[in-house]
Design a protein that fits this description.
- The chain has about 375 residues and is an alpha/beta fold.
- The protein is built from 15 helices and 12 strands.
- A 7-stranded mixed beta sheet has the order 2-8-7-6-5-3-4, sandwiched between helices. Strands 9-10-12 form a 3-stranded antiparallel beta sheet. Strands 1-11 form a two-stranded parallel sheet.
- Helix 7 (about 160-170) links the parallel strand 5 and strand 6 (about 170-175).
- Helix 1 packs antiparallel against helix 10.
- The two termini are about 30 Å apart.
- Bound molecules: pyridoxal-5'-phosphate.
- Pyridoxal-5'-phosphate binds near residues 72 and 210.
- Pyridoxal-5'-phosphate (PLP) binds next to helix 4.
């Protein structure tokens, strides 16, 4: 059975070109970049070239890029260390109610340490309105963290407007751009952020590597203890093959940006219209236009997303219900609840996130089986 993979917001297949670029750094140029002999110099140079490639893609200086193990670590480091370092200045910090758990749980940890946290509400499209942030700011607010693009519903925030409000009160601004990088234009100067988190595996790069952008002079620290790597901000031998792969993935995303964008938009439009015309009682979630390309999130009323997911899987179609990170739990998505959906409707949510390898035939295959699956499940549902 052919696998139709429609869960690119969870992770992506690594591009063959990325694998080829990484390969020599496992077994030929395998030196530790901190060592002094010449094979180490090769890996060190590759790492620094990759840093420059990544920095220039987001409009940063290479010295502002710190490699990490991925989005979760970058989010944790950005949030925990800046809040703690500024504790004497103020103990009020702000985030939104629709963040990924890598951000929400870091804020909850800070709450346990005595910080006051405001979780900003969103509207029914998942937008954090700048006025809402403005009202929440206080003279003791030191940090605001609001995600660039949401992983469950794809909604994109107006980061420059939000960052401007935070800066006007002297607070730092962090954004989790894990779902945005490679999908939407991303320039740290335009976004006007102090800190930005990213991860390679959402853009056809390897798992277990990411970076934290920290604008020069931003008061952040290491939160691991060990060697002096990454200018003493992130100890541990760097994942050189992963870093090289990340830079290659970024290079490919840059070269294919327009083509990928258009293709993903076309797939999403086709799928949305196909679902609309073949299945009743559906609620599309996320902003209709301010959203990541190739992302369709939809709630099927009266049935559970997990059951739809399992039945699609039996046809070789991979999707997620809500967010991959919360699948396995039957709790309704915190994102959908924050957007005002009732719990029963939110339980029927499915996320289709397309990738550059998907075709219109993949979309047709979904539309061919989905109405039958929904009908079958609704016949068994006590809610119908
Ligand atoms: N932030 C967002 C918005 C995500 O979607 C994810 C992964 O799903 C993460 C953070 C965590 O990234 P990583 O898997 O690289 O730790």
């Amino acid at each position: 059975m052919k696998c139709i993979y429609l869960d690119h917001s969870a992770t992506t297949p690594v591009e063959p070109e990325v694998v080829t670029a990484m390969s020599p750094y496992f077994h030929v140029h395998f030196g530790n970049p901190s060592s002094l002999y010449s094979i180490a110099e090769v890996s060190r140079n590759a790492m620094e070239e990759s840093r420059s490639t990544i920095a220039s893609f987001i409009g940063a200086n290479a010295s502002e890029i710190f490699f990490t193990s991925g989005g979760t670590e970058s989010d944790n480091q950005a949030i925990l260390t800046t809040a703690r370092r500024q504790k004497n200045k103020g103990q009020h910090i702000i985030t939104s109610s629709i963040e990924h758990h890598a951000v929400l749980h870091a804020f909850q940890q800070l709450e346990k340490e005595g910080f006051q946290v405001t979780y900003l509400p969103v509207d029914s499209n998942g937008i954090v309105h700048p006025e809402t942030l403005q009202k929440a700011m206080t003279p003791t607010t030191t940090l605001v963290s609001i995600m660039h693009a949401n992983n469950e519903v794809g909604t994109i925030q107006d980061i420059p407007a939000l960052a401007k409000i935070a800066h006007a009160q002297g607070a730092l601004f962090h954004t989790d751009a894990v779902q945005a990088i490679g999908k939407v234009p991303l320039d740290v100067q335009t976004l006007d952020v102090d800190l930005l988190s990213s991860s390679a595996h959402k853009l056809y790069g390897p798992k277990g590597v990411g970076f934290l952008y920290a604008k020069k002079g931003t008061p952040f620290s290491t939160f691991l203890y060990g060697g002096g790597q990454e200018k003493k901000k992130r100890p541990g031998t760097e994942n050189v093959p992963g870093i090289v792969g990340f830079a290659k993935a970024i290079e490919i995303a840059k070269n294919r940006f327009e083509e990928d964008h258009q293709h993903l938009q076309n797939l999403a439009t086709f799928l949305t219209e196909g679902i609309q015309s073949s299945v009743s009682d559906v609620v599309f979630t996320g902003h209709p236009t301010l959203r990541t390309p190739g992302h369709v999130s939809v709630c099927f009323k009266y049935i559970e997303g997990e059951s739809i997911l399992m039945m699609l899987d039996s046809f070789g179609i991979c999707v997620s219900s809500g967010s991959a990170c919360t699948s396995g739990s039957l709790d309704a998505s915190h994102v959908l609840l924050a957007m005002g959906l009732d719990s029963a409707t939110a339980q029927g949510s499915i996320r289709f996130s397309m990738g550059r390898m998907n075709t219109m035939d993949d979309m047709k295959a979904v539309i061919e089986v989905l109405p039958g699956i929904v009908e079958k499940l609704r016949k068994m549902s006590p809610l119908c």
